[in-house]
Every structure is written in structure tokens, then in C-alpha cells.
Specification:
heterodimer, A: 511 residues, alpha/beta, 2-enoyl-CoA Hydratase, Chain A, domain 1, 3 domains, 37% helix, B: 74 residues, mainly beta, OB fold (Dihydrolipoamide Acetyltransferase, E2P), 4-stranded antiparallel sheet, 55% strand
Chain lengths: 511, 74
């Protein structure tokens, strides 16, 4: 039958593609405890769900066609927990998964289908950057930039990046554009490799210092979370995805409420100190308010005076933005501003309501912040907050001072505001207030000073604010979980099925 | 094991030093408590390690960025 030799050839070519960079290179990776491109796809996706796109693609250069299985990037479509997704997995054993014409077309196609078909796009990064000699010279220029939307982030479906090795070029660019980035410790991400950088600046460069996990999780904030293994990274990708809808036209999926979720809130009064001067870890409050074990922290090592987490309340995804007094007394610095802004963009873009848990003494004042443009960051945050169309609920736990009162959902910047009886809506600390307003120092007239402090404290208590209907409720801290359950149900946006207006979908990905 | 400087994140007064040289500490564990903005604010360990040297004393006035402690990290 004439088909036989053709089918045999097909089998040969498929086998060659599946062999990637060859048994030696694959064995080396296995010995290092690192998965290869296809193993990663296998681990990530539901068994048997992978439909590869372009398995038989190769380099366009004749001399390279035989040595470039799948042109170095394994791409296609599959499912995670039965939800359709698109995936691009870099094959480092094939020419370092460097970028060139054909694999560029592949990424473009998979990315466009992910958008038009409403699927999350998952990028498994490990790439050595641009391919040489393809990208050299004027001819090299001509193959670049053929897709004017290559680096456009329109947040129509979630993009998630896992950095699983040396990441230069496309792995890095897509990570910067992604909604969530997880990095395996030991992997690196930078504009250029430490070798190239060392050549350019003529001094030794430590790759970890240039682009390791500590830099990116704590200093740049470009990476959300760092883990120890490929498998943990892929598990984290799946965990993040479970909080989000598949595309921005639907509400996030519901999850069952674990037993005992209503219990932890009962001891909340033991966790928040009565003394104004004492601090606590906001995680202790968040974990008591949300469904059991449902807290997924974003950027835990960055901008720590604010905690941002995807959580669930009554099975529904909720974004929580909480000041954390444990760090800098909860005062809000430049990094925390960026972290808060990017979280608002994520939640609003994917139809997730936002809850502010407020306990902050104001923006952090100082030289460091000013050098980094603190006022600009504060305004970025206000600008983004003004564009949010998903429900916003603000609960003031203790302090809520200054301009930051607005950034944390004050006034018309939230849809519902509530307060604990311990709430303090001052503009500044009462003692400083007496100084500034009455020109009086404590040592000059201690009795009068105490009287004036009392007055200021009285005016800052939650009762006058509730009296003016600026906050719609004052609640017992132990009622916080029930309050949120009810209020979020009330603000369900039924006419649109829980879908927001997406005015932040084009917001920049870094700032 | 590289030694890192732990700077104060805020301007204030050193209120309490809660570790000693040689102590092993975990990431985020409080090292020094600073009084600022009428609050007792802990300076947390940036990562796990061993306290190598303490550069301040209780009562010292410190500025944002002043090194309070040296940590030999893992």
C-alpha cells in the first residue's frame, strides 16, 4: 500500500521531534533533577489532553532543519482540571530554545487562539534569547517585529509564567507581561545573561545577583513566588489558575467551602492587640476571615507593608488587600504602592471583587521614598482605583490616616465601608495633631494636652463617621466574616453575571 | 555564607533589641524593635541566618537606611 512508506516517514519525523535535543542532554537534565520541556507539559496538563501545535516545525535555515525539533519550543493546547488552556514550553536542549522565525509564528498562533477561544496561556520559561545567526544583521532585523501585537497585554485571558531555568529573551519578556510569575530557585531572569553582561561591563557578574529569585521576589517584584522544584512551580501555576476565570467574560469558578471555615474568626480578638502601639501580622486576620486554607499570597516578599492575596469567601474568589502592621508599622512605601496597584489591576481585569482591610498610619515619609517618586506611585494607585468596576469593600480595623485613607478604599473609592469599634480615622497621630492644630506641647500643659488629645480621638472614632453615613456599618470584629459573606453576595453584579467593565485591561505591566 | 547588612526601614528610636549575637533567626523574625509613629515596629530578618553583629543600642536614634545588624545568611 502506498501509504506505508509515508506513514513510516511520519513516525520517524515524530520520533525525532519527541527526542528533542537527544538522549545525552535529556539525561543530564534528569540527573540535575530538572524536568524537560515535554515532561513539564505532561505534568502540567490533564493526562492525555495535550494537542500539540507544530510538532514538526523546524528552523527555516536549511542547514539547521535537521537539528531543530519543534524549532525549540513545544506548544499547543490541553486542559488543567478540565479547563482548556494554551501552553508554550521552551525546549532548552534544542538550540537553547532560542527565538527565531518559526517558533515566533508558533507562539503568536497559540497566543492568538488562547485569546480568541478564551483560554489561559501558560508559558514555561527557559530560553537563551535570540537565535544567532538568524537574528544578526539587517536580515535579522527583517524577521523581527512582524507582529505588532507581540508584546501587547490586553488581559483578555490570564497569562501565567513559570521560570524554570536561565531565562533570556522571550521567557523574560512574557514573564514581565504575565499576571502571575513563579520561579524555581536557581533559575535566573535578566535582560542579558551574566556572561554577556560581564563582557559588556568588563567585570564578573554573579547570575544570582543579576537575576536570581531573591532579587526578583524581594527587590524588583517581577516574580511573585519562588519554589524549589519544577513540579512545585507547575503545581503553583495550577493553584493560581483555580482562582481565576478562563477568560475575562466570565466570573471566577466556585469552589466548595471547607468544613470549619466559620470557626477561626471566633478568636480574632486575641489576635489584634488592644494597645494602639502594638503590631500584629495581618495574615492572622486574613486567615480567619476567609475560607479555610484558601489564602494564596501574591508577592509575599515584596512591598511587605501591604499583603495582597487571592482568597475565597463562601467559595467565591475574593482579592484581599490588607495593610500589614508587622512591617514598617503598616506605613505604605513605594514598593507597597506598586504591589497594591498591580493587584487592583489583576482583580478587576478578571472579575474578582476586592476587599480592603485597613490598618495604616499613612504613607511612609522619607528620603528613600521621595527619590523613588513616591507621589507618582500614590497617584498611580488612585488612578487605577478610580478605574475599578468590580465591587470594592473597605473595612477599617484600627488606624486609617491621611491620604492613604482614600487609596485604601475611602469615601467613594469603595462600594461599601465598614469599621471595627477600634477604628481611628485621624489625619495624623493625636499627639502630633494637638501640636499642629493648637501649637501646644505636652510638657507645657499636660492636663490641657490630654484634654485636646481626647477631643481629637473622639472625633476620629468610628461613631461620627457612621453617623454621617460615610461608613455603612460598625461591626464586632467577630462578625467580619459574616459581614463579608453578606455584602459580597449583595454586590454580586447579577445583570452581568459577575463580569466587570475591564477598564484596567490595558494598564501597564510594570511601573 | 554571605553577610548582609540589615537596615532600618524607618526613622525612629531603638526601643528593644530582641536577639543576641550568635542567635539563629528565620526570615521575618523580629530582630530589633523600633519606636516610630507611636508604634513598636519590628525590624524583621530579610532571610534566615545567624546574627553576626549588632550595630545599635537601646535608646539610639536611627534613620531610615541605618544598618542595625549584620546577618550571616544561609
Amino acid at each position: 500500500m502506498a501509504f506505508e512508506p509515508l506513514l513510516f516517514e511520519l513516525e520517524q519525523r515524530r520520533a525525532k521531534a519527541l527526542a528533542m535535543g537527544g538522549p545525552d542532554k535529556l539525561a543530564k537534565r534528569r540527573a540535575q533533577g530538572v524536568l524537560n520541556a515535554r515532561e513539564r507539559v505532561e505534568y502540567l496538563l490533564d493526562a492525555g489532553s495535550f494537542v500539540e501545535s507544530g510538532q514538526l516545525a523546524t528552523s527555516y535555515r536549511p542547514e539547521m532543519m535537521d537539528r531543530s525539533p519543534a524549532d525549540g519550543k513545544v506548544a499547543g493546547f490541553g486542559a488543567i482540571d478540565q479547563r482548556p488552556v494554551a501552553v508554550v514550553s521552551n525546549d532548552f536542549t534544542t538550540l537553547g530554545a532560542t527565538s527565531s522565525v518559526v517558533n515566533g509564528k508558533k507562539i503568536r498562533h497559540v497566543r492568538n487562539v488562547a485569546t480568541s477561544s478564551g483560554m489561559p496561556l501558560i508559558l514555561l520559561g527557559e530560553s537563551a534569547g535570540a537565535r544567532m545567526p538568524d537574528r544578526m544583521g539587517a536580515a535579522g532585523r527583517a524577521i523581527l517585529g512582524q507582529d505588532p501585537q507581540e508584546y501587547l497585554r490586553d488581559r483578555r485571558t490570564p497569562w501565567i509564567s513559570a521560570l524554570l531555568g536561565s531565562c533570556y529573551g522571550s521567557s523574560t519578556w512574557y514573564a514581565c507581561l504575565s499576571d502571575f510569575v513563579v520561579m524555581r530557585k536557581g533559575a535566573t531572569m535578566a535582560v542579558a545573561s551574566s556572561k554577556v553582561t560581564a563582557l559588556a561591563i568588563k567585570q564578573a557578574v554573579d547570575p544570582e545577583e543579576l537575576g536570581g529569585w531573591k532579587l526578583h521576589t524581594a527587590v524588583t517584584g517581577l516574580v511573585d513566588v519562588a519554589v524549589d522544584t519544577d513540579e512545585q512551580a507547575l503545581d503553583t501555576v495550577k493553584r493560581f489558575l483555580a482562582y481565576l476565570p478562563s477568560h475575562n467574560g466570565e466570573a471566577p469558578p466556585l469552589a466548595p467551602v471547607p468544613d470549619g471555615s466559620d470557626e477561626p474568626i471566633k478568636d480574632i480578638l486575641q489576635v489584634v492587640p488592644e494597645s494602639r502601639s502594638a503590631v500584629y501580622d495581618a495574615r492572622e486576620v486574613v486567615s480567619r476571615v476567609v475560607d479555610r486554607d484558601s489564602t494564596f499570597e501574591m508577592k509575599p516578599r515584596f512591598g511587605k507593608s501591604i499583603l495582597t492575596a487571592l482568597t475565597r469567601i463562601d467559595g467565591r474568589t475574593v482579592g484581599i488587600l490588607a495593610n500589614n502592621p508587622m512591617f514598617k508599622g503598616g506605613s505604605i512605601d513605594v514598593d507597597a504602592c506598586a504591589k497594591a496597584t498591580s493587584f487592583l489591576v489583576l482583580c478587576d481585569s478578571f472579575n474578582i471583587p476586592i476587599v480592603f482591610l485597613v490598618d495604616q498610619p499613612g504613607f511612609l515619609i522619607g528620603m528613600e521614598g521621595e527619590k523613588r517618586g513616591a507621589p507618582g506611585r500614590i497617584m498611580n494607585w488612585m488612578n487605577a482605583l478610580s478605574l475599578v468596576t468590580m465591587p470594592r469593600v473597605a473595612i477599617t480595623l484600627r488606624k486609617n490616616f491621611g491620604q492613604a485613607y482614600l487609596n485604601m478604599g475611602g469615601g467613594r473609592n469603595s462600594d461599601e465601608a465598614a469599621a471595627w469599634p477600634s477604628a481611628d480615622f485621624g489625619f495624623m497621630d493625636p499627639a502630633t495633631g494637638v501640636n499642629v492644630l493648637h501649637g501646644l506641647r505636652r510638657e507645657d500643659d499636660p492636663a490641657r494636652f490630654a484634654e485636646l488629645m481626647e477631643e481629637i480621638a473622639r472625633d476620629s472614632a468610628p461613631w461620627p463617621l457612621a453617623g454621617l453615613y460615610e461608613s455603612q456599618a460598625v461591626i464586632d470584629p467577630r462578625e467580619t466574616r459574616d459581614y463579608l459573606k453578606s455584602i459580597l453576595r449583595i454586590h454580586s453584579r447579577r445583570p452581568t453575571g459577575g463580569v466587570g467593565g475591564h477598564r484596567l485591561q490595558y494598564w501597564p505591566t510594570s511601573y | 555564607m554571605p553577610t548582609v547588612e540589615v537596615p532600618s526601614p524607618i526613622t525612629g528610636t531603638v526601643w528593644k533589641i530582641v536577639v543576641s549575637v550568635g542567635d539563629r533567626v528565620a526570615e521575618d523574625q523580629p530582630l530589633v524593635i523600633v519606636e516610630s509613629m507611636k508604634m513598636e515596629i519590628p525590624i524583621p530578618a530579610p532571610e534566615g541566618g545567624i546574627v553576626d553583629a549588632i550595630k545599635v543600642a537601646e535608646g539610639d536614634t536611627i534613620s531610615e537606611g541605618d544598618v542595625v545588624l549584620l546577618l550571616r545568611t544561609d
